[in-house]
Amino acid sequence: MSSPHLHRSLTTVEYFSFGFGTMIGVGWVIVMDDWLGRGGPAGAALGYLLGGLLLLPIAYAYSRLVRQIPDAGAEIAYCEGLFPPLLSFATGWIMVLAYLIVCPWEAVAIGNLLARILPQLNSVPLYQVAGQTIYAPRLVAGLLLTLLIAALNYRGIRLSGRFQNWTTFGLLAIFVVFVALGLARGDASRLAPGFAHEGGFGAALSILLVLQIVPYFMIGFESIAKSSEESRVGYDPRGFGRAMFLAVAVGTSFYVLVIVAVSLVFPWQELVAGRLGTEAAFERAFGSRIIAQAILLAAFLSLLKVFNGNFVAATRLAFAIGRRGLVHPALARLHPTYGTPRVAILLMSGLTVAAALLGDAVLIPVTEVGSLAVGFGWLSACVSLWMRQRRPGSQPAVRLSVVGLGAAVSLAIILMKLIPAVPGSFGAAEWAAFAGWCALGLLFWSRR
To answer: What fold does the segment set 12-446 form as a domain?
Structure first.
């Protein structure tokens, strides 16, 4: 018979690793040209700095909620008793997408990353999707990575937490070295012009275009709430909030420093024109293949941890949905020995494999949906805390002005994706992907 509880072994170190590790993927390597093309060095750095500051009220709301309600369902649990069950389910289901979509992206990215070291992987074409060729070696690499992450999670949260620690702190160690080199040997004259767009509103436009993508690249600090039931016995619940704030602070600093370091060592306009990655900029600036390989190693570690962190969050949310009977209760089954949500792990693994088979061309519109999804999740958390705090006798005291600011930021993220006049808003492909996920959710709901 299955164990009725998730196993408990996590500490603040693991919670920081999951929060920070779920935020920082490989975007800082493979899409640096896009960031600088949008904002320039100053625009990109300020966009991420401002974005990180705007996330602090949302982190505050989550830190208060998880202290009161340490539940794997997170947003679902926060909405319970305040909204109808269907709305609670919809919030949780949309948040599952926010984490799940990162997993096939990383399964695809591992092939892209390895091909930078071994070009031979760009061989044995299998088929094409949306004009993009799927190569057998790269596809196999992604499927093997998915199997590894699923196996780690199947065997227990303690093993998954240790894996997250090693990959997170390994990335940070390498990051400190190459950023220090960039800051020490870079040339400040390369930062000019600071903004990608000219004119009276050029600086504001540059920052806005970067700020718009910050939510997608900063998703993850709130994933700590999804593993809150798996804390070590006797754990101080205030540690959840400390880990969240630390994850946001370190994550924001990471992005700002890597943007500045790249811009100092290599002319950013040449990087954008040549569509170069971070490792290529450092290799050309220092004339050393070794430093490029070190950066690729850091990116590889980053890829592993962000895959693992998002997979943990997605499976715990799916487990919590099943435990509440909002879908078929099979999703709530736990492994009798490892105490892990085995059915949820198998389901998320299958969906990851199915999406990875489509390649990165089809995944692009779905990732845009991920930004909208996390906006809904963040908004639901802020509104739930506001409503709970308005009840008579609510404890402890909460600064409603901060919670209100978090709700406003979350709503702005949603509107940026829904209003057609805003650059980067939803197109037909994004709407189709969102409708497809909602339809799948309604199917699960109907079979509960």
So the answer is: Amino acid/polyamine transporter I (1.20.1740)
The reported pLDDT for the residue numbered 2 is: 40
What are the domain boundaries of the chain?
A: 12-446
Residues 142-161, mean pLDDT to the nearest whole number: 88
Can you tell me which residue has the tokens 């088979």?
357
* Separation of alpha carbons 78 and 86, rounded Å: 14
Q: Are 182 and 264 in contact (CB under 8 A)?
A: yes
Strand 132-135, strand 125-129: pairing: antiparallel
Q: 3-class secondary structure for 152-212?
A: HHHCCHHHHHHHHHHHHHHHHHHHHHHHHHHHHHCCHHHHCCCCCCCCCCHHHHHHHHHHC
Please tell me the predicted confidence (pLDDT) of residue 366: 66
**DSSP percent split of the chain into helix, strand, coil, nearest 5:** 75, 0, 20
pLDDT digits (tens, 9 = 90+) for 234-290: 889 899 999 999 999 999 999 999 999 999 999 999 999 988 889 988 998 888 888
In angstroms, rounded to a whole number, what is the distance separating the alpha carbons of residues 208 and 227? 33
